[in-house]
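for ur thesis appendix - Phosphomannose isomerase type I helical insertion domain-containing protein. copy paste whatever u need, i formatted it the way the template wanted (i think)
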Amino acid sequence: MWSSDRARERFSKICRTFPSFRLLFGGDTYTKPLEYCIMQMKNLDSVNQDSPEYNYSREYLEKCFRFMMTIDTTIVHELVSQLLKELDNGLRGAVEEVTVGVIRKMSIDFPNDIGIFSPLFLNHMILEPGQCCYYAAGELHAYLSGECVECVGCSNNTIRAAMTPKYIDRDALCKTLNYKMTEQNDYLVPEMKLTECVDMYAPDCKDFQLHRIRVGVDQSEEEMMMPTLDCASILVVTSGKGTIEEATTKNQLIGQYEVKRGDIFYIPPNHNIRYVGFGELQTKAIIATTC
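the 3d part is after this line
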């Protein structure tokens, strides 16, 4: 969901453009929460996100979302059909064509599912190779396509929202979401170049850290030391092949391993890992850490 004047205007424009979305979010039959939510978002440019005014608006956004998640399934089916007709008739509002394609595909893969509406109120992010994003607890998200490395904290409280035959705890979902309103660029985590071969991604959260390793035959050094971490981590080789050594912090050799694409290694805290032999192609690996 979004913050900033541009993002709030986008939400307001989508509500004005798609009658099906207005009905789903409580418009007309539940007018006050939806209209008040839109009005409040338009007036939040100079309001601190910790202020009562901002939190009051988020309460109304929660009411709109709860209305959507608890609406009768027969009505959802009707509104999904209406949304697809609206798109067929050329309605777009603030929705980009690439997002329209996502909605259509979702309607084929998950017919009549409430999640078909989600691209209208969630940020649609298309990450380029090497980009990283971070979602805090309590934020709706879904993966659409492509390959990625996901770091998840030790938890068993994942709450489903849509696009699944499994049980959805709607009440817990509505209570757990933080209804944070921000633009997609705020989720991106910038890369920090540690060495010629190592990039680090460290979000504003001490629990997660990710290192991207790229070594190859054109290396200036004969070996490459990977970051030594004081917590456990996992090494995933994503392409190429080579040789790595594992040692203690006192450089006592533990083992030497031939690695290739698809190999996964557990790295205990404070163990040194270094590449000592490079394959014919560039070798890429990811070290994922959840402390």
